Amino acid sequence: MVDSIRVYQIGLGDIGLAITSILVEREGYAIAGAADINPALKGKDLGELAGLPSGLDIPIQDSITALLSGTEADAAVLTTSSRMEDITPQVLELVDHGLPVVSTCEELVYPKRTHPELTEQIDSAAQKRGVAVLSTGVNPGFLMDFLPMIVSRISRRVEAVRVERVQDAGTRREAFQRKVGAGLSAEQFEKRVAEGNFGHAGLIASVELLAAGLGWQLDSASETIEPVVADQAQKTDYIAIEPGQVAGVYQVGKGIREGHEVITLTFRAAVGEPVSYDRIQMDGDPQLESMFPKGVPGDTATGAITVNAIPLVLQCRPGLRTMADLWPGSE
Amino acid sequence: MVDSIRVYQIGLGDIGLAITSILVEREGYAIAGAADINPALKGKDLGELAGLPSGLDIPIQDSITALLSGTEADAAVLTTSSRMEDITPQVLELVDHGLPVVSTCEELVYPKRTHPELTEQIDSAAQKRGVAVLSTGVNPGFLMDFLPMIVSRISRRVEAVRVERVQDAGTRREAFQRKVGAGLSAEQFEKRVAEGNFGHAGLIASVELLAAGLGWQLDSASETIEPVVADQAQKTDYIAIEPGQVAGVYQVGKGIREGHEVITLTFRAAVGEPVSYDRIQMDGDPQLESMFPKGVPGDTATGAITVNAIPLVLQCRPGLRTMADLWPGSE
């Protein structure tokens, strides 16, 4: 029996707390401490916050600095932000302390082209301290990028990849329904899009990660977002939607290579969507189609893959790694 | 532009020659030499044997020893045998020469429990020379073991895994149809089973590899084989099957853990099978189902994954590795 891997948790939102409950039930892991910037959580017990049947005797700290002055850990799980600007100083503080980091930050999943300077800062700091940093999640990080890369490894020649993730948002938690715009008017939807931080984050990161996994140099990666408009009234546990109001989002990420659209990622999450599924279609030799015919529940899967990535960061090469590093590309 | 990876090819059967044609069309690879024990092939040009439009100017050698005295290489692709007894001396000769090895030997995909002594010989020789040895293929090596392991990484808790690979053997090459017993009588089928080296090889290796990938210690792994009997006449390009004759095989591999059947791998390949598909079902949290609704063509996929594994053996830790080493288990 090896010693347990001691883990810090930073960021105690929905995903962070899902990870707490997985870490508690898994053998081989121990939570060494937890922190969140929300001052209302300071000093509360992590187990209580996570709704576990018994407490964990882990008082929540209000900063990474406070956490680092306590019990030592072997790795940090960082679930605080979707954005490189916000997460970079946090990653650097952990790395400078000698800690490998697993994150669910969407932009950090493949930031090299979108945020070259912050990427370089994290990568050089991590290499200097001999630790790895990796960001993952079910999407980005798995369904639309890593998994198609894995499927491509049985392909002699890949010409183009199309991935669809279609979900009935009516079965998801309220925060998710709000995030995809359920119940907004068309005008409100436009406004939220213009404000940013809306809809599914990480489509560009998925395009870039998949391209890297296929060994493809892209000319460009781009993204569009449109509302899915309800044609009949819909009602969830949280939101009532009138016909003509927004039921959800329809987002498309595209990767262009040598002038051709070779990557097309479609994310559609709307209340009332009749079927939830995930599908990969790969043109080439052979033609391949792979699917989850009933879809993949996002929150559980993101929590699971994040915990399952802890052994990866402990063994992979130092630096800012991506899921594509697991199996170097073939072109 | 990095230099091409120089590859030896040893074993020039159907899979070996499929690999030749992939290596020739891929950038970044160069075939440094080829060998096969069939004396009739000695001195022939590899490109001609592989049916390429133009020759390769690579005369086929009749032994590994002869190959090693020629042009140098960076890795060897070994597609000679399904059995550990046959392949071990070949692997050792290559490893002792300092060459990383990718193989498609079914038993070598996960030999630790079935062939502990030969495993130890290969592992210690490879570690001593600082090179890695890895065996893969579409099955075993991907569809029934590696891919379910990858899917399990989005699962919070896996309780049991069932994988089915169902194929219409009528669409495959003659050697495959013969191998699954198409056209035999029930008595001939029994006899061929008793003689061994019949049907799909590697089901036990898949059970063991998947268990390792899930971090499961099995009590036992076992395998059954039965004929699929034709209830109506079938005719392929190669074989005519009367009602009552064998159309193919139905093989089941099982893994038992703490008294429960937690792994069930079903391989069914028969002439006239109405639908070809590959399906993974995973009990736990969440329930997951993943499938290739139209199946995966075996020969192309095995050639592709073998070539795609070359970068893996060049970068992974020295020793006898398995596909499960790509992503260390979580239990």
How would you describe what is shown here?
Two copies of one chain form a homodimer. The first copy, chain A, is α/β, with parallel strands linked by helices. The first copy, chain A, has two domains: 5-136 and 301-326, 3-Layer(aba) Sandwich (Rossmann fold); 146-295, 2-Layer Sandwich (Dihydrodipicolinate Reductase, domain 2), CATH 3.30.360. The first copy, chain A, has helices spanning 14-25, 46-49, 64-68, 84-96, 116-129, 146-152, 174-179, 186-195, 203-214, 298-308, 310-315; strands spanning 5-10, 29-35, 60-61, 75-78, 101-103, 132-135, 157-168, 220-229, 234-235, 240-241, 246-257, 260-270, 277-285, 288-292, 319-321. In chain A, strand 1, helix 1 and strand 2 (29-35) form a beta-alpha-beta unit. In chain A, helix 1 crosses helix 10 and helix 6 runs parallel beside helix 9 (203-214). Chain A is globular, with a radius of gyration of 20 Å. Chain A binds chain B through residues 22, 25-28, 138, 142-143, 147, 150, 153-157, 285-286, 288-294, 296-297, 300-301, 303-305, 307-309, 311-312, 315, 326-331, and chain B through 22, 25-28, 138, 142, 147, 150, 153-157, 285-286, 288-294, 296-297, 300-301, 303-305, 307-309, 311-312, 315, 326-331.
Topology order of chain A in helix (H) and strand (E) letters: EHEHEHEHEHEHEHHHEEEEEEEHHE
- Report the β-strand fraction of chain A as a percent range: 25-35%
Largest interface, with Cβ-Cβ < 8 Å?
A: A-B, 43 and 42 residues
Oligomer: homodimer
Judged by helices, strands and strand pairing, the structural class of chain A is: alpha/beta
Tally of distinct domains of chain A: 2
Distance between the termini of chain A: 41 Å
Helix content of chain A: 25-40%
CATH class of the largest domain in chain A: Alpha Beta
CATH superfamily caption of the largest domain in chain A = NAD(P)-binding Rossmann-like Domain
Let me know the largest β-sheet of chain A. Answer: 7 strands, parallel
CATH domain topology of the largest domain in chain A: Rossmann fold
Q: How is the largest sheet of chain A built, in terms of strand order?
A: 3-2-1-4-5-6-15
- Unreliable spans of chain A are none
- SS elements, strand count of chain A: 15
Report mean pLDDT of chain A, rounded to a whole number: 96
Any idea what the radius of gyration of chain A is? 20 Å
Shape of chain A: globular
CATH-level-2 architecture of the largest domain in chain A: 3-Layer(aba) Sandwich
